[in-house]
Write a structure and sequence with these properties.
The chain is mainly β. It folds into three domains: 21-166, Nuclear Transport Factor 2, Chain: A (Roll), CATH 3.10.450.40; 177-281, Nuclear Transport Factor 2, Chain: A (Roll), CATH 3.10.450.40; 311-383 and 460-717, Beta-galactosidase, Chain A, domain 5, CATH 2.70.98.20. The protein has eleven helices and 33 strands. The strands form five sheets. The protein has a 20-stranded antiparallel β-sheet that branches. A four-stranded antiparallel β-sheet has the order 3-4-5-6. Strands 7-8-9-10 form a four-stranded antiparallel β-sheet, covered by helices on one side. A hairpin with a 2-residue loop joins β1 (44-45) and β2 (48-49). The longest helix is centred in the N-terminal third of the chain and has 24 residues, at 2-25. It binds 2-acetamido-2-deoxy-beta-D-glucopyranose (NAG) (2 copies) and copper (II) ion. Residues 638, 640-641, 661 line the site of one 2-acetamido-2-deoxy-beta-D-glucopyranose.
Amino acid sequence: MKYLRSAVFCCLAVVLVLLLQVWFRQPSFSRCPGWFASCRERSYLFGYKIFEKGSRTEQAKLVFPQHPLDPLTFSEIARVHALVLNSSISLAEGKHAKLIRKVGGSKPNIFLHGVSLEEPDKEDVLTWKTGDPMLPRKASVILRIDVAIYRFVVDITHHIVESVEPHHGSGTPTLNFDDMNTASALPLQHTEFLEALKSRELDKEEVSCIPLSSGWYNVKEEEGKRLIKVQCYYAGGTSNYYMRPIEGITMVVDMNMKKIVKFIEHDHVPLPKAEGTDFSLSAQRGPMLKPLNTISLEQPDGPSFSVDGHYVKWANWEFHVKPDYRAGVIISQASIRDPETDVLRSVLYKGFASELFVPYMDPTEGWFFKTYMDAGEYGFGLQCMSLEPLNDCPRNAYYMDGIFVDADGKPYVRPNMLCIYESYAGDVAWRHTESPISDREIRESRPKTTLVVRVIASVANYDYILDWEFQTDGLIRVKVGMSGILMVKGTSHDSIREAAEANEELYGTMLAEKTIGVIHDHFITFYLDLDVDGTDNSFVQNKMIRKKTLDGTSLRKSYWGVQQLVAKSEDDGKVKLSLFKPADYVVINPKKRTKVGNPVSYKIVPGKTAGSLLALDDPPQIRGAFINNQVMWVTPYNRSEEYAGGLYVYGSHGEETVSRWTRRDRPIEDRDIVLWYTVGFHHIPCQEDFPVMPTVTESFELKPTNFFESNPIVKTYPTYEKDLPQCSFSI
Ligand SMILES: *[C@@H]1O[C@H](CO)[C@@H](O)[C@H](O)[C@H]1NC(C)=O
Ligand SMILES: *[C@@H]1O[C@H](CO)[C@@H](O)[C@H](O)[C@H]1NC(C)=O
Ligand SMILES: [Cu+2]
C-alpha cells in the first residue's frame, strides 16, 4: 500500500510537470495564448483535445484546407452540395429526364453516396510547395437521382460542375447511412416478421436487425435493383446481441423503394442463451483477472511529431494523412530525409486499404450470400467509430476527426476517428554486444520508437484495427488487426456430438451451446503507389534459386543465388507466393543508384497471408477476383484505377477489378507504377473467439533496400536513465 501511495504521488507530480512542459514546449501544435480557458484553437494535452467551448461541428467549420490533398472541409461540402443540387435539377430536366422520371415523378429525389476530395493531378501535387497558392479544390460526388447513378466532379474554386458521368455498368454506390438505417428499421414494421417474433415468443423491443450486403448471384429478377438482406438478433439479457441470432429468417429490402420485398422463413432454430455472451465491463461477475500494475508511455518533452493540418512530421519522415469515407485512412506523399544529404526522398505517393473481401463458407439459404466487400459496400471509413483514448491509442496520441456527408448532403463530424502516436514497445532498433572471446568491449544498443497512424473500423460485428507504422530506419509496416464479434449461426444442437448424430454439417466451429462460428476469410487489398525516389520505377523479382557447384570445385553441392526478373508488363507483375519459390519483391528506381551501383529501391515484404480457396467461377470470387493473385499485382499508374474491386462494388458483376485491368498487360517498366498487396486471413473460429475475439494481427512491410548508402540510424543516441521521468517506489 505504501509504495502504491508514494508511486501515485510521484506520478501525479510528474504529470503536473509534464502538463506544463507539454503546454509550453510543444513547438508545432498550435500554441495557445494563456491558459485553458482562453484557448480557442485546437490544443493537445496527452492526446485530449481541449476546446474552450463549442461542439466539434462548430470547431470543424473553422478549418481551411492547407494542402492540396486535405480532405473537404465543412464549408466546401456545403458549396458542393448547393452546386450538385442545382445541377441535378437541370440534369433531371435535361437529357436524363426520362430515366429519372420513370421512377421518381417530376421532382428528382437526390441521394448522396459519397463525397470526397477529387485529388488534383499527381504532377500538380508533386510540384506544389507550402506557400504556393492552393490548387483548385474539387470534389468527387457519387449520387443517385432515384435509380440513376452519377459521378459528378465539382470544381469548388471556380464554382462549376466540371463533369457528370452517368454509371451504366453493374454495381451501385457505397451504402449511405440512410440505406443502412432504413433497412435495419423496416423489419420491426413488417407484419410477417412481427408474427414470426410472436410465434417464437420474442419481445420486439429486444430485437436489432442488421443490413447485410447481398452480393451478386446472377439472379435475373434482382438485376438493376439495390437489394439488401436483413437478419435480426436478440439482445434480451446481453449487450452482445450478435451472439443471439434469430436464425432462419431473412428479409430482402429494396433500398430504392425502402420496402421489404421478400420475407423468407427458411428455418426455425431456438435462440442461443444470453448467459456468457456479454463482454461489457459492467456485466462481468465473479473474480476478475488480477490487474497488471498501471503502465503508460511518458514523454516529458512532449511528442516528437508535429501535425500541421493533415501534414505530419516525425523524426526523418514526413507524410500527409487524411480520413476517408471509403478507405478509412489515406497516407500520401510519405518521404524520408536522407541522413547523408539531408534531402527528403519520396517513398510512397499514396497508400490505403482499397477493398476488403470477406466470404463466409456456408452455402445454405440464410448464409450463402455473405461475401462482404466492406470498403466499397459499407464504406470502411464511415464505419470507423471514435477511438477510445488510453485503450485504443495510448496517452500521448493525437486525434484527428473525420468529416463525412450524409445522404441529404449535410456534413457531419466523426470525432477522434484517427489517432497518431509514438510507440515504444521495448524493442531494439539495432545493437551489438561483443563476446569476451574477442577481448574487445562493444556494448551498443538503440531503442526502437515508431510512429503509428491508426483507424479502427467496426463493420457491424467485426472490428478492423488498421495501422500504418513508420520506423526511423525507413521501414513502413502496415498492420491489420482483427477483433470484435464473430458472425455466428444458431443451431438446435448443444454439442458437436449431437450435431454429428443428427448428421448435420456445421460449416464452422461450435463455440457454445446452439452457437456456431462459421468459417470465413478476410482479405484486405492495399493500393500502394510507391514512388521510390521519383515517380518512374520498375518492379523487380529477385528470385532466389538453387545453384549447383561445378564438380570438384567445392565440397558443397549447392548454394543459392539471386536471379533478377525485371517486370516488363503487367503479366510479369503478377505474384503468387510459394514457399519453395522465394523472391524479394522490389520496386527500384532504375535511374538512381547508390555509390557502389545498386539501384535505389524499396522492397515489399509479405507477411503471413492467405489465398482464396473458392472456385474462380464462383460468383463471389468473380467479384473478388482482385485477390486471385496472392500477393501482388503491379499496374501502371492510372488515376481511375484506385479501387481493386471497382468504384461501384455493391452488387457488381466483377467487371471492374484489378484482375480485369491487368488483362491488358500494359507496360510497367521504368514508369509510374502501383502495387496491390493483399493481407489475407483464413478464419476457423475457436472457442476463445467467444464472446468477443482477442485481436489477431497480420502485416506486411515496405523496406528500404539499397535506398540508403548505409544504415540510416547509426547516428542515434541510446536512452539514459537520467533522461527519463523518475518514478521510484519500493516493493
Ligand atoms: C443554378 O443553375 C442555373 C443554370 O443551370 C444558374 O443560372 C444558377 O445561377 C445556378 N444557381 C446556383 C446557386 O449555382
Ligand atoms: C485508365 O483506367 C481506366 C479504367 O480502368 C481505363 O478505361 C483507361 O483506359 C485507363 N487508361 C490507360 C491509359 O490505361
Ligand atoms: Cu474472422
